[in-house]
Design goal:
128 residues; 31% helix; 20% strand; alpha+beta; three-stranded mixed beta sheet; binds zinc ion; single chain; two-stranded antiparallel ribbon
């Protein structure tokens, strides 16, 4: 993911992506393309709102990544909070319909060696 998008997320959600966490400044914290930025942003918005409302303990991201064509969000804290698990599951489900490259309407595709979610224009692009 582009550095400006990573910075957008870490600056907007400093509690989910704390500067003290060892992996925050590592590109590997975000292992997906730019097209899922809004999905991640929206997911973090809902998570932080629940925390700020006092209904859940703070969540700290471990990794945000693409795996088998789907957005995955790994985190610590708030274990057993089904509402948060639902938010993460919904974002993962929506990623199956969102091109990972451009954020447009995408479909889940079998790319041969990899599964991926792409629009027609970006189908076939190799992952970096
Ligand atoms: Zn696309």
């Amino acid at each position: 993911m582009d550095i400006k998008h990573r910075l957008h997320l870490t600056e907007k959600f400093p509690q989910i992506f704390p500067a003290s966490a060892p992996s925050t400044n590592s590109p590997s914290l975000f292992e997906c393309e730019d097209g899922w930025l809004d999905l991640i942003d929206g997911m973090c918005n809902l998570i932080q709102q629940r925390v700020d409302d006092g209904r859940s303990e703070q969540v700290v991201a471990r990794q945000v990544k693409e795996k088998q064509g789907q957005l995955r969000f790994y985190y610590s804290g708030a274990s057993g909070d089904l509402y948060l698990e639902g938010i993460v599951a919904m974002a993962g489900e929506m990623s199956f319909y969102t091109c990972e490259v451009c954020g447009g309407r995408g479909t889940f595709r079998n790319g041969g060696r990899f599964f991926r979610t792409r629009c027609d224009e970006h189908d076939g692009r190799e992952q970096e």
